[in-house]
Amino acid sequence: MKQIIRGFVFTFFVIFLNCAFLDFSYAQKAKKSSKSSKQVKSSQSTNKSKAAKYISRGKSRIKQKKYSDALSDFRKAHKLFPSKTTQNYIKRLLPIIKKQRASSSKNKNLNKSVVEKKSIPSPYQLSKEFFEISNELESSIRKMKIATMNLKPIDNKTLEQKRDERLKSLNMNIVKRPDDRRVLRELAIEHEKNGDFLDAKNIYLGMIENNPKEPDYHYFLGTLYSKMGKKNNAGFAFKEALYLDPNHKPTLEALSIYGTNSLSQLLVDDLINHSIENTSNNGSAQILNKTRDLYNSENYSDLIEFSQENEKEFSQSSSLVFYKGKSYEALGKNEEAKSQYKIAIEIDKSDIRSSVALGDIYFLESNYVYSAIVYNSVLENDPMNVSLINKIGLSYYNGFEWAKAVTIWENLLKLSPNHTEVKKLLPEVYYILSLEYDRKGFSDLSRRSFSNALSVNSNSAVWLPNALKTAAKYYTENGFYQLAIKSYHDAMDIAPNDYDSYNGLGATYWYMGEKQMAISAWQNSLQLNSTQNAAKGWLLLANKSSNQ
Fold this sequence. Notes:
Layout: H1 2-63, H2 67-80, H3 84-112, H4 123-133, H5 145-148, H6 156-176, H7 181-193, H8 197-210, H9 215-228, H10 231-244, H11 249-258, H12 265-277, H13 284-296, H14 300-309, H15 311-314, H16 318-330, H17 334-347, H18 352-364, H19 368-379, H20 386-398, H21 402-415, H22 420-439, H23 443-456, H24 460-477, H25 481-494, H26 499-512, H27 515-528, H28 533-547
């Protein structure tokens, strides 16, 4: 029993000692924790203050575009005192610095040899980069940005995706409604837009097989053959349509449209005569034929009068209205012509002729904003039209929208790699971009742009003088007179007998108020070419101004 009691006492003593030791340990830790907490709070306050200084300096470095230094400051601030603010700044700076480093890496290769032929960067990248980094060129006097707000660069990948989606949707509808005329027509048109003429042809042939007496189907096939350049096939298809319905307006419209391009005039006349013989005296064929005759014989006033007499028929036919617009244009009445072309487009939104004619007038009037808009609207119906794409590029070029011109013409070269005009003008645009990059202090980008110019056409003698003149015109119109004068003199050094450079130089001096120097430049221009009217006109203006 004594042994049990002694054992119990010993155990109780051991437990008591352990508890005492633990209480002491916890007390010591609590003291240390309290002391440490005070130290942490003091340290945090110090770190927050230091972090604030780094943040302030980082913001200042961002304004100076010293992005790497700014990133270092924000990382230091975040290490001292983590916060969402510093974290957000770091996230924003990382992609900017990555882009800079990528650009720097590319430019190192360019520094080895400026004239070395390199692969041309994506025009979309160039366009985006140019407008972002340069904070945009000075606003064009023609307000081209109004147009560019509505016009986006062609993204081939996006276009392909949208095309595939449309085709998938239409094919699904065909499965559900295999005999639906509207869906079949939409699918065929989609194939036409993509240049898949064989698929479109098979759809039309299937429609004719199921309903051979429907003139619309033969007309669809005829327009397709015309686009394909198959004159005889188109003629037979149109003939079938008119034999089924001698007054078939779409076919008569098509003959008016394609007659001058894809079909022989003899065939067109034969088909129209067939329609005339089998319809009333005042039918569509008779009115179309009379309109064509008046236009071809240059009786423009009579044609306009004839249109007023047959107002109802003209109001329903885009082709007839087109001829009316051309008549007004031939008479020098551009406003009336534009009005008629707009009416024709309202009648038939796919009327390419009227749209192009409208765009051409805007272009000739130097209204490049509207010419670009109109041409682009036509491109939706005819995306492979090289001539049309070039006109869009020319609108941007003349409107001083260099990056947009690059985008358009780079895409055009994919369709027509040896396009003569583009091979001359695209290097000019790249060279002007090079000058602008240099003016804004981006020497690496300037060298790259010059390299791109040589990549398109290594023979700079072909395009450089005109590029300098174009740049000089841009500088003059935007008030950079000294840059303009330098560009004109550079052009003269390369092509000393170019009288047009002297005309431009004179105009620059004139806008500067340096009348005598302007007159001298124009006189030099006349010495090089005494028959040209530009210098004569300027000198007359100068003399008139002096006499006032």
